[in-house]
What does this fold into?
Amino acid sequence: MANDSLERLKSDIKLNAPARLYVFYGEEAYLRRYYLENLRKILVEDFAEAFNYHRFNAETISLQGVLDSIEALPMMAQRSMVQIDDVNFFALGEDGASYAKFFSDIPEYCTVVLVYETVEFKIDKRKKALAEVFDKATVVEFKQPSERELVSWVDRHFKKQGKQIRVDDAQYLIHRCGGTMTALLSEIGKLTAYVAEEDVTRDHIDLLVEPVLEASVFAITDAINQGRYETALQTLRTVLQKQEEPVRILGAIGGQYRRLLAAKRLLDGGKQQADLMKLCGIQIYPAKLSIEGARRLSERFCARAVELCLEADQKLKTSYDDPERVLEFLVLELAGESRNG
It folds into this structure.
């Protein structure tokens, strides 16, 4: 349904035929903002924006203000746009029914866009009038693209700047950035500005791109698994210096070892990378890394690593020991188990 709505939105913009009510939500902020801006371009002429573009949020919204904006005839233009950010209409009590009435009777010259960025969008079927309005709206969920789509997108952006990047290095960049298009766009800009060569490589990425927590944690677990224990400890200390919450760090380490254990058991059962992707809900590159790591490890070590992470979690939640010491001791325990196979 969400994909159908996105295709409809693309068609609306291409044909310059916007709907009267849109709902934009989803984790991929870059896509949400991209399509919002493109929609705004076909709705609002620059010279008349002050008259025909109206914006509200939870602090500025009012029944009369929204009604006046929807009903106001466009000045020196054919259309007007009303944007409302992060308002949960289902939590507004009696006012919610009034907004339902407004949104069910939007004039043909006006488009209303309800944008959810920091507030969760969820239809409450108990509020029938509002639920019916939202059911008829063009509700677009902006999901994070697949890794294949992101690789193509990254490649296109580098080529626009006269640069090239290999597929595996693009995957590495996505992994290091956490896979969000907003973060990727920023790092692509940094790389194209500072890399003099035509080819952008992994060495450039390591030098210029700050890794997200999950990428740093993979570097820690991979170093342990390969016997580079001092590197693992130093990487942990670097992560801690960034003021990352110890609970989040431990959760990421435990999550990676659970994936490695799952990968090991799948391999032993004759399964492949695609099975791990489906089981753990991960993309191609992290699945490939997990499969490669699992091939080098024993099931005994993977299972013990998960147990040690659970014990460390218990210590973090119940002891008075310094959380950073708990994490450092965990890395040392994992290193000891790794030495024993």
In short: The CA atoms of residues 65 and 260 lie 55 Å apart. The chain has a mean pLDDT of 94. The first helix runs from residue 2 to 14. The beta strands are 21-25, 53-56, 80-85, 110-115, 138-141, 164-165, 199-200.
